[in-house]
Amino acid sequence: MTNTDLPVVIVTGASSGVGLHAAKSLAERGWFVVMACRDVAKAERVAREVGIPIERRAILEIDLGSQASVRPFVERFHALGRPLQVLLNSAAVYLPRLKAPQRSPEGYEISVATNHFGHFLLSRLLLDDLKRAAAATGSKARLITLGTVTANSEEFGGKVPIPSPANLGELQGLDAGFKDPVAMINGQPFKPGKAYKDSKLCNMIISRELHRRYHDDTGIVFSTLYPGCVADTALFRDTPKAFQTIFPWFQKNIAEGYVTQERAGERVAQVVADEVFAQSGVHWSWGNRQKEGREAFVQPLSAQANDEARASRLWSLSEEFVGLA
After folding, report:
1. Which regions of 121-202 does DSSP assign to beta strands (E)?
2. In what order do the strands lie in the sheet with 32-37?
3. Three-class SS of residue 193?
4. Least reliable range by pLDDT among 87-101, 214-228, 255-269
5. Closest residue by Cα to residue 204 from 98, 292, 270, 285
6. If you ran DSSP here, which 8-state letter would residue 213 be given?
7. What backbone phi and psi angles, to 5 degrees, belong to 258?
8. 159-186: per-residue pLDDT in tens?
9. CB atoms closer than 10 angstroms to residue 297
10. pLDDT, tens digit, for every residue of 192-215?
């Protein structure tokens, strides 16, 4: 197989953590990986460090917090002249110590702007690529998004009241325009940790809405996953230093939810590539407590995530916020 015959996956947030190790695992499996990153120089460095062969990768700049960066990324990807089999939405920002909302260039709260709006826009702009791949490969195209236990109230981690569980309310904040002074999807006062949880709940809602709208007609597989608690990634770089020490220890020794970045990356690669994960409209998990030899299973999601009326409204409002309506 030549370089141009390799299946192609775009991995957002591929310069660190789970995204980087998923990219490495997929390259080892014979995929061509497009590493979509804010910092191209850093991505080049870490790709060399972990051993992603240069002939198995391309690195393209994207800042998912800026819609003006997402569209040029898609153009640069198309300039590569490669078909796209899988889009892996892995990137996320988590800024729990903010005292006031940080805003995207478009004026939206940054966690929702990056984690939700940026990935929503990217997914929609690349949907036709995935449709073509599904038609050409017998429905092997996939759109995979990392979820989180902290946004799923069906699980203990999603019920933790610090700062409060994910809750989109009736999308009042989006209805109000989601610009200053509005910073939360439900229109309530700003809580930075909750803004992250809400944005990830949006990711899981939109994955199911994509499934409802497109799977039957296209065969594209839409799913989300939680690979375990990777408690020492760069996602937590803006938490207090004490938290960065205590949280991994707690997950390893008390909660037993900890997985290494390498193992999480391999699990993500399995969901991207393996036939056993070809089920659409589901959320994959290995559980909150890690058990040796446990296989992945379909984890039920909360009533919020499964509310089709709310999902349809979130879709429509999101289209307006990213200029697709």
Report:
1. 142-146
2. 57-61, 32-37, 8-12, 86-89, 142-146, 221-226, 282-285, 297-298
3. helix
4. 255-269
5. 285
6. I
7. -70, 135
8. 777 778 999 999 999 999 999 999 999 9
9. 11
10. 999 999 999 999 999 999 999 999
Stretch (H or E) spanning 90: none
pLDDT for res 258: 66
- Retrieve residue 314's tokens: 């979130």
What is the H or E stretch that residue 261 is in?
Answer: helix 261-273
Which strand (E) or helix (H) includes residue 273? helix 261-273
CA angle, 325 as apex, 84 and 214 as ends, to 5°?
A: 45
Enumerate the β-bridge partners of residue 61.
37
> Which phi and psi (to 5°) does residue 50 adopt?
-90, -5
Opening angle at CA 301, ends 295 and 305, nearest 5: 145
Q: Which residues pair with 86 in a beta bridge?
A: 9, 142
Residues in the chain: 325
CA 295 to chain centre: 22
Q: Residues near 113 by Cβ (< 8 Å), separated by ≥ 6?
A: 65, 103, 104, 106
